[in-house]
Amino acid sequence: MKNRKLKNSELDRKSIDAFKEANKTPIIVVLDNIRSLNNIGSVFRTADAFLIEKIFLCGITATPPHKDIQKTALGATDTVIWEHHEKTKDVIKTLQENGVKILSIEQAEDAVMLQDFTPQKDTTYAIVFGNEVKGVQQSIVSMSDEVIEIPQYGSKHSLNISVSAGVVMWDLFAKMKA
């Protein structure tokens, strides 16, 4: 049969323990005041897919366990390490003190288009995604090492945060593994 779909049993999925032991992609996700529990769950699921190091849930961003997060995370809250912090700026400051480069995903002056961004070897990046309405807080954008913009060519000028996270995580993962 041409292009036979694979069964779940053929996908060689990692167990929770194997995931935790696996070498991680040097990417940390920071969710800055995300309202939607489904978006949060979706980010967890995508972070699991690309072996992301950690997720920081900041401000009003809800935390597991919650049925609406679980509905879209499909168990990824058990594999991806996460922490909650009240203030995003405190997380950013600590990450920078530990040598992590901060990339806000936002539309801003002097932003680098995603396709033009090349990650440096041996560097860990924290990618910051903002609130569904207000985006990443200006104070966080100002603290960032760089601002990355996802190019968009239609009549809308924003993507859902879960879509943005998927696009950026895949792009950085692919560039880092090349």
Plain-language structure description:
The protein has helices at 16-21, 37-49, 67-73, 88-97, 138-143, 161-177; strands at 25-32, 52-58, 81-85, 101-105, 112-113, 125-130, 146-149. The longest helix is centred in the C-terminal third of the chain and has 17 residues, at 161-177. The chain is of the alpha/beta class. It has 6 helices and 7 strands, in the order H-E-H-E-H-E-H-E-E-E-H-E-H. Helix 2 (37-49) runs parallel beside helix 3. The protein has a 7-stranded parallel β-sheet with strand order 3-2-1-6-4-7-5, sandwiched between helices. 35% of the residues are buried. Helix 2 (37-49) links the parallel strand 1 and strand 2 (52-58).
Task: Report the C-alpha radius of gyration, rounded.
Answer: 16 Å
- Biggest pleated sheet: 7 strands, parallel
Outline, from the CA principal axes? Answer: globular
Q: How much helix, percentage-wise, in residues?
A: 25-40%
Number of helices: 6
Order of helices and strands: HEHEHEHEEEHEH
